Amino acid sequence: MHLADMSVAGIGFAADLAGALYWDAERLLVVSDLHLEKGSSFATRGVLLPPHDTAETLARLAAVIARHRPRRVIALGDSFHDSGAHGRLSARDRAALSALQDNRDWIWIAGNHDPDLPRDLGGAVADEVAIGPITFRHAPTGAEGEIAGHLHPKARVSRRGRAVERRCFASDGARAVMPSFGAYTGGLSIRDRAFAAIFRSLEFTAHVLGDRRMHTIAAERCC
Amino acid sequence: MPKFHAVTPESSDSPDLPEILTRWFARRGWAPRAHQLALLAKARAGRSALLIAPTGAGKTLAGFLPTLVELSTTSRLVAGAGRATGKGLHTLYISPLKALAVDIARNLEAPIAEMGLPIKVETRTGDTPVSRRQRQRRYPPDILLTTPEQLALLLASDDAPFLFGSLRRIVLDELHALVTSKRGDLLSLGLSRLWRIAPELRAIGLSATVAEPESLARFLVPQLSPAAATKGDSGAAADIVVAGGAAAPVVEMLDTRERLPWAGHSARHALGEIYDLIRRNRTTLVFVNTRSQAEMLFQDLWRINDDSLAIALHHGSLDVAQRRKVEQAMTQGRLRGVVCTSSLDLGVDWGDVDLVVNVGAPKGASRLMQRIGRANHRLDEASRAVLVPANRFEVLECRVAIDAVNENAQDTPPLRLGALDVLAQHVLGCACGAPFLADDLYAEVRRAAPYADLSRAGFDDVVAFVATGGYALKSYERFARIRQDKEGRWRVANPKVRQSYRLNVGTIVEESMLKVRLVRSRQGSKIGGSGSTGAIARGGRLLGEIEEYFIEGLVAGDTFVFGGEIVRYEALVEDQVYVSRANDADAKVPSYTGGKFPLSTYLAARVRGLLADQHAWTGLPDQVREWLSLQSCFSRVPGAREMVVETFPRADKHYLVCYPFEGRLAHQTLGMLLTRRLERARARPLGFVANEYALAVWSLGDVSAMIRQGRLDLDALFDPDMLGDDLEAWLAESALMKRTFRNCAIISGLIPRRFTGEEKSRRQVLFSTDLVYDVLRKHQPDHVLLRAARADAATGLLDLRRLGDMLARIGGRITHKELDRVSPLAVPVMLEIGREAVYGEASDELLAEAAEDLVREAMGT
User: What number of other Cβ atoms are within 10 A of residue B232's Cβ?
Assistant: First the structure.
């Protein structure tokens, strides 16, 4: 129940309730938009959000990694909320991150929030990664076979005067946009015109992260 | 405002009054009233005082009389102004409404001019132009009329010592209304600051009748330190002056000729009778409890308005210009009737109203009396009011409310404990004004009555929160908003902090509102859903504003009542909601979200008492008596302290109905918690509805059989321990709790208003207080903001305290009735199913339903 099948360009993926994507054949786990240190980023501007978001995000990441035991992890961009973010990581969070990277390949893909990733983090840094028919990059272009993040898709469903809004994967079988993973990341409705630009119609599907299970809902049914 | 009505002089001449005032009274043919002179005597004796008086007693003149006397006799009147002469304010007047401040100023200026007194009166509200605000700081008037928020702003400025150093009097109007909210907390802290700046300051509180005048009187004077209090010094309350002489109101219940509805809040059955009352009187105020009720009733009245009576609508969500138009027509006596909500509850004078009609439940005895008072502009004339119950339960509530009014029994809520989020705002404000020592500020804060019992640890937590967020991790020291200097005084870290304080001051967190515009329908067009479509005509007539969360529950094509008509939801584009006119007779989506105020504990107890006492039923309409008699034959009428639980099957479901009589909010919380427990007991609960009196939960499991076979124990089900772990688990996901937290986060200054408020791209702001709530709850559950939110939840949207009291009350007094079908008493709450939002439905179920659509579509069914 915590996984939903999602196919992109003929490849079968599992969309995980945690907001991560798993490619079993490649033993590859993908997460997008961690936005680590978003809390302290606000603090530098005088908004003292609780500084526990990085610890929370890494704990969630550790849980999903423990579940799938991937050989390789791709962080699909905007892993750090700003260019100073990695420097503000606490010693504990830094150690937690490094423990996650042990014994597996780790690829940081550059995003608009973190275009210049530091080299001292462990793992490789890339602008995009291609594996078979699939290209992983941060900002979606709408190209076929593309898996991207950046937009933080969320879906809203209304029934009988009550609305539920949750993060989701958005996919039309040829391309997909990943939900944001970070504890402090909000979302953008899949009915926003930004998604129309990627999918060119409403013929796409939202794999919605419910409280206890995944739900596959037609974009048309969302509002 | 000042009600200078000719009354029989209570003393032929008033030796207490200076010549100039005596002459002025005489010239007008008026005489000062006893309570006005009493208040003057208190002022002369150097005492603070609380005046309790009904509407129309000349309360405001009483409040200003000491000021007028002092200003007409002292040497303050020597020409010259401003810093040059060192002349600050003499009197501050604080009102909860800026309209009231403006109104009072106008009415004060007249007598001052007539007496030829060189006294300057000015107002300062959010609408006051910047240039005048700046001038006021340099050349303050003698009397400044303002609001609690403006006072906080002035106190946080460098000018505070000059402005308030010579302050002698502060008049707090509508004090009973102010002290029940966080605005009252903010005001109490401001008052405490003023006592430090101007130790000679004396306060006058003006209030309607309240249940506990003694505790209100404590608000007006500095509270003693515990050390002084234990020495037996009990001087920490203002003197109380009670104005007597108001004629008792005449209140009756509409004895309808129509059939009384079982449920609902529209009172449509009595529409003709309400219309008749408007026709037979000069000006009638028709009070209802919610905006949507006002909308509906207004629309219905116009449908039968054959005489074309001038009937208007007034509520807080209408466009301001439209409201002003109604108010103006009202003062000019051009209206025959106004359908209104609590937006007209408070003091502003709307001219001559000769009848108040209260549609629906009165909710509280004091609330009802204040509304009735709106009809009365002469003390010697009785106010007249008619109560129109909208359903059978409301008949009971109206009956006991009328009894309470006749006994003059009050049920205003007890004074609040000061909120920590408001304190945080105040602490930052203090630092913006001048550096402070924690010891001094702690002592100062505790002189404010709501904070008299604040612990030092609690205070220190708040200061730490203001400084660096108060987090377990010490990583924010370098981002501190306030810092200690070498002498240990807390100072603002940088000028930006001052600026952000000024932008965020105040304790009113507006619901996020969207503008509603009327356009032509585009029904039939293919573009569905909301979002960024360009297919509808932009612009359109502005109907008013509506809560964002209401719109979020709608899909295009849903109909609801707004602006007095039934409209169809078309689309949401940025912050504009586009609707078109619908021809439907009934709205599809109910917009009744429950009154803002739950049934008072006092009236609830009286309703239970009335039910339990069969002899008292004689005072009830036949239809209601019959209903209750049926219930006692068929099931059981609850005793005064017992709680009856009925279980019965209906269609393919099993129902559990109980009657706690504790108000909708407490029942909703109870419903959430019961559903969790029933789930654990494998009763497979599906949902519940609550009204003011009862709660109905339905499930797939046969609850009757489970109780019969001992698999479900009702005493255990209703055990107060549900307020432990079950509550904790529910709070983690409760939308109401998240809303409560959001308010605390904003008031405390954690999240700037501009982050949550107005900006156009707000739907794309990648940030939400819900996320902060989740993270904080998990990583630092004892954080000061979570404590503040919990304190709010005890009395606010979750009404936890009341639920706790109820569970304690019914312990061991639950009577179970196993029935084969619905009981007469259960019918009203059962009828709410389908009319009201159903709770208890998990988000996953809702999402699953939407997913089903996809399957159906794929299968071509």
Answer: 6
